[in-house]
Design a protein that fits this description.
Layout: H1 8-39, H2 53-84, H3 92-121, H4 127-152, H5 161-185, H6 188-218, E1 248-251, E2 256-263, E3 295-302
Antiparallel strand pairs: 1-2, 2-3
Helix pairs in contact: 1-2, 1-3, 1-4, 1-5, 2-5, 3-4, 4-5
């Protein structure tokens, strides 16, 4: 009996199926890592800026929402296709991609276990680390088990109940991770509110530095924000990104001032180091922070004349 030939349809079906599998697996692992980072923050990262929402977590969720259903559709279609044409099980493209996947996932599992044992022997085991190792082990192990069984099962007898069980468990893991991810990042509207608040903090920092520069040049703080405008240097004071209103400023003494903004959300109880930790000295004034509630929040600042001395004339 002649061996079945690989048609363009066969090649692209299998290629698309395995690509969507890899993308889904990587996105799931990244999402699980982001969830673990959120629930078990690393104290070594305190004081540094990381935006888990706009990077790993949101991208992973977007990838899973789009790519994972495509993978499920292709997997279901390929199963039906093989039931109708069982001779296609021996196609070279299918075997190559299957064994490549087994090799990659096998290496991932073994490497994961080696790292776990090595870290354990070094005495650096933490809950955060163990959960990440388990995440990789579960995802890679599930893929490995699925394709090992896929190579052994006999479609002619319709033995697909175990395959359905593995697919069901995978769907539960993916959808559970998506729900946890959505719960942590909030709705798209809340994410938009956070971005507007980040813009407001950035605007206040810009105004603050303009005030410091004004002090160093003139030896006094401005009476109002109009004093900061300079058409020659094209200096201007930013306004609220939503309302367009000028931020509230008040000089409270010869060296002190107050900046206020109307925020859309609160970062008081935020555990991630996103605008709720003291900024580095090069980013703002010493010992300052930008913790705020929803609504109007004011920040009191006092210029340290030793750190920001008045410049001599002509400098």
């Amino acid at each position: 009996m002649d061996k079945p030939k690989t048609t363009p349809k066969d090649f692209f079906l299998y290629f698309a199926g395995f690509v969507t599998l890899y993308v889904s697996a990587i996105s799931l692992v990244n999402l699980l890592f982001s969830i673990i980072n959120k629930v078990f923050p690393d104290n070594l990262n305190n004081g540094y800026y990381y935006d888990y929402y706009s990077t790993g977590m949101r991208l992973s969720i977007a990838s899973l929402v789009i790519v994972f259903p495509i993978f499920l559709f292709l997997a279901s279609y390929l199963n039906k296709y093989l039931l109708a044409t069982p001779e296609k099980r021996d196609l070279a493209v299918r075997k190559w991609l299957t064994y490549l996947t087994l090799f990659v996932t096998g290496v991932a599992v073994v490497s994961d276990l080696v790292v776990l044992v090595n870290t354990f022997l070094g005495g650096e085991i933490t809950t955060r680390f163990v959960l990440k190792v388990l995440a990789v082990l579960i995802v890679a192990g599930a893929i490995f088990a699925y394709y090992i069984y896929d190579l052994r099962k006999n479609f002619a007898f319709g033995q697909i109940s175990r395959t359905k069980l593995l697919v069901t468990l995978s769907c539960v893991l993916v959808f559970g991770s998506l729900i946890a991810g959505f719960a942590l990042i909030g709705s798209p509207m809340s994410a938009r509110d956070r971005k507007f608040d980040e813009r407001r903090v950035s605007d206040l920092q810009s105004i603050q530095w303009q005030i410091i520069s004004y002090w160093q040049q003139k030896g006094e703080i401005p009476v109002d924000l109009d004093n900061l405008k300079n058409p020659i240097s094209n200096s201007y004071t930013p306004t609220d990104p939503v309302t367009g209103e000028v931020y509230r400023y008040k000089a409270t003494s010869d060296l002190s001032f107050q900046l206020c903004a109307n925020f859309s959300s609160s970062n008081v109880n935020v555990t991630d180091p996103v605008n709720d930790k003291p900024m580095p000295l090069g980013y703002g004034m010493a010992d300052e922070n930008w913790i705020h509630d929803a609504g109007e929040t004011c920040f009191d600042r006092t210029i340290d004349i030793d750190l920001y001395p008045v410049r001599a004339k002509g400098i």
